[in-house]
Amino acid sequence: MIAAVAYPLVALTGLGAKATAHAVEQKTRVLKTAMPAETSYVYAPDGKTVLTMFYEEYRQYTKLSDMSPNILQAIVAAEDNRFYQHHGVDPKGVARAFVSNARSGGSQGASTLTMQYVRMALRDSATTPKEVQEATQQTSLRKVKEMRMALDLEKEISKDQILERYLNSAYFGHRAYGIYAASEIFFSKTPKNLTPVEAATLAGLVKSPSEYDPADSDQKEATGRRNYVLDRMSQLGYLSPDSATAAKSEPIRLKLTTPPHDCAAVPEKYNSWGFACDYLKNWWSAQPAFGANRLERMDKLRRGGYRIVLSLDPKIQAAAEKNVGAKEATGSPFANGIVVSEPGTGRVKAMAVNRTYSLDLAENPPSSNPEAGPKVKANYPNTVAPLLGGGDLAGYQAGSTFKMFPMLAALDSGMTLSTSFNAPHRYRSEVYDGWAPSNASGAMSGQQTMWSGFGKSVNTYFVWLEEKVGADRAVRLAEQLGLRWRTDVDRDHASPDKAKKWGAFTLGVSDATPLEMANAYAAIAADGRYCEAIPVQAIMNRDGTPATYATPGGIHREVAKPRCRQVVSADAARAATDAARCPTGDTPARGSCGGWSTADSVRGTVGRPVAGKTGTTDSTRSAWFVGYTPELAAASFISDPDNPFNAVGDGQSQIPIAAVAETLRDGLKGTPTRQFTPPSDAIVG
C-alpha cells in the first residue's frame, strides 16, 4: 500500500483535495445522519417476549450513556489515544507512520477513530459494489478522501457522537457488529456492565477479530492483545498501575451466546409460532412500504432495526395448537391445520398445523408422492413449508366451502334468501355446455332455498344459482375477498374469457389456503367489509415511530394498521351469515334450514351463535370446515400436501369440523356472547 501518509501534509491540499472536494462535501453530509445496519426484533403480542431476530449484521444501537466508561476508555486506548486532542486527523500519528513506513517499507496507516468511522460508515451506506470497493480499497486517494471527511465531520458532530457511532459500527468477530452485540455474544451481558478486563478484551478485537479471537482454544494472542490495551489504559490514566497489573493476571472468562436468527430460531416453547413467523417474512416481502422489490424489502427487514409485534393471540394460538394436535400428531402424511382471523381487522390470531417447524428433515420418511422419487423427503414430522398459506404453495381443493361465493354474489346482486329451486339429484347445465353434476346424497333432492341448500350442501341447487348470478361474478367476488389462483389450471379457468363457463367453481375445485379462506369468511362476519390478512399488530422504526407507507393519494398510513374496504353490502353479508348458520346446527334468524345439516354438532360445541360451511372433494382427498362468530373466523383443512391423490377418507372428514368448533370455543371462553345482526326483510324475500 502506498498510503497517503507518504505525503502527510500535502495530501490534504493541492490536486487530490481539489479533485475530491465536492464529492467529499456531499458524503460528509450523508455521514452526519448515517446509521449502521441494525437487527430487527420480532416480539410476541406482549411486546416484550423476543421470538426471533432478523439481521445481516447482528447489532443493536446503544447510546454512549448506556455503555460502561471502561469500554469508552479501552477503545480510545487501543485505537486512538489522542482522540480527544486531534480534529479528525492526527498530525503526530501521520508523521510517525510516515517515518516508520520510510524506514521499514511498511504500511502503517495512522487512522484515527474518526477516520475509521468514516470508512465504516461509507462501507455500510454503500448501495453498489463499486461504492463498497471505493470505501475499502487500499489507495492513496481513498486515504485522502477519508482524512478530508474526518476533518469535516468533526466540525459537524461532537467527539462523543463520533465515539458512539464508532462503537455501534465496529466489527468484533462472531457476527457481532457494534458493542451491544459484542458484549452479548462474548460475555452475555450489556455494554453497561463490562469490566475493565472484558472491555480491554473487546477493544483488542477491533484491530483483527480473527487473530485476537478469545473464543479460540488457544487464547495466547487474545490475552496478549488484551494486556496491551490494559497497559495503554494505565499509561493514559484510565487505570492505576496496580489495577492494570491485577487485570492482566486474570484469565479471559467468556460466556458465549449465539443470538437467534430467522424463523427457525423461534424458541421451542413457541415452535408452532414459526409458521406465523414464516408468514410474516412472506407478507413483508410483498409490502411496497419496505422497498421496490422483494430483495430490497428483505434487506430492510435484516438491516432496518424494526420492532415487530405479531398479531397472534396467545390464548387462541394455544387453543389452535391443542385442537390440531400440533405438539403430538405430527407423524401423519395428512396435514391438519387451522388459521384464525379477526373480522374487521384481518389480523391473524392463530396459525397451527400438526407439524414441527424445523429445517431438519433428516428423520422425515420418503414423500408419499410416487412421482417424487425415493430421495425426496415427506413434509412430516418436520417442515418449514407454508402449509397454512401466505407463501407460494397453491393450497388444497376447498370443496363446498366455495358455495359461499356464488351465494354472496347472488345476494349482493339483489336475489333473496328465499330464492327457491326444485333441485334434482343430477342437474344438466345448458349454460355449462351439458355438464351434469350430482348431489352427494339422494336425500338432498327437492325444493331448496339458500338456507336449506347451504345447510345441506346441495350441489345442484348451487350450480343452478351460479348460473343465475354468473360464474364470472362469483369468481371476481372471491378475488375481492382475497383468493388468488396459483396453478395454471385455476388461472386459466379464472381468466376473463373463461370464468363465465367455470361451472365447477361453486363446488370448490380450485385450490385455496386456510389463510385465504379464514380471511374471506371473516369479511362476511364483518358485514361485508374485507380486510387484508395481516400478521402484525405493530411495526416500529428504529427511532420508535410507527412504520408508514404513502397511499397513491399521498397520505401516510401505518403499515400495521388494518386495510379494509367494503366488498358487498352489509345486508348481503348478514343474509349470507343467516344461511351459513344452517350447516352448523345453529338456528337462523329468518328462515328454515330444512331439517338437517352437514355439521350440526358445531353450535353445541361452540356454545354461541356460529356460522360456517363444510367442504370435501372427490373421494374425500381433502376435507375442510370454515366457521365464524362475530368475533373470530377460522378455517381448518386436512389433506396430504405432498400427494393430493392420497385420499383423507370419510373417517377423517370430521377432524376440521372439530378443530374449528373447539378452537372457537376455547379461544372465546370467558368473553361476552355476541349475536349476529339479522338480515333485512327486503333480502329475506
From TrEMBL:
Pfam families: Transgly (PF00912), Transpeptidase (PF00905). The keyword Hydrolase applies. The keyword Protease applies. The lineage of its organism: Bacteria, Bacillati, Actinomycetota, Actinomycetes, Micromonosporales. GO terms for molecular function: penicillin binding; peptidoglycan glycosyltransferase activity; serine-type D-Ala-D-Ala carboxypeptidase activity. This is Membrane peptidoglycan carboxypeptidase. In the N-terminal section; belongs to the glycosyltransferase 51 family. In the C-terminal section; belongs to the transpeptidase family. Keywords: Carboxypeptidase, Cell shape, Cell wall biogenesis/degradation, Glycosyltransferase, Hydrolase, Multifunctional enzyme, Peptidoglycan synthesis, Protease, Signal, Transferase. GO terms for biological process: cell wall organization; peptidoglycan biosynthetic process; proteolysis; regulation of cell shape. GO terms for cellular component: outer membrane-bounded periplasmic space. PANTHER family: BINDING PROTEIN TRANSPEPTIDASE, PUTATIVE-RELATED (PTHR32282), PEPTIDOGLYCAN GLYCOSYLTRANSFERASE (PTHR32282:SF33). Residues 338-642 form the Penicillin-binding protein transpeptidase domain. Residues 1-23 form the signal peptide. Residues 50-233 form the Glycosyl transferase family domain. It catalyses: [GlcNAc-(1->4)-Mur2Ac(oyl-L-Ala-gamma-D-Glu-L-Lys-D-Ala-D-Ala)](n)-di-trans,octa-cis-undecaprenyl diphosphate + beta-D-GlcNAc-(1->4)-Mur2Ac(oyl-L-Ala-gamma-D-Glu-L-Lys-D-Ala-D-Ala)-di-trans,octa-cis-undecaprenyl diphosphate = [GlcNAc-(1->4)-Mur2Ac(oyl-L-Ala-gamma-D-Glu-L-Lys-D-Ala-D-Ala)](n+1)-di-trans,octa-cis-undecaprenyl diphosphate + di-trans,octa-cis-undecaprenyl diphosphate + H(+); Preferential cleavage: (Ac)2-L-Lys-D-Ala-|-D-Ala. Also transpeptidation of peptidyl-alanyl moieties that are N-acyl substituents of D-alanine.
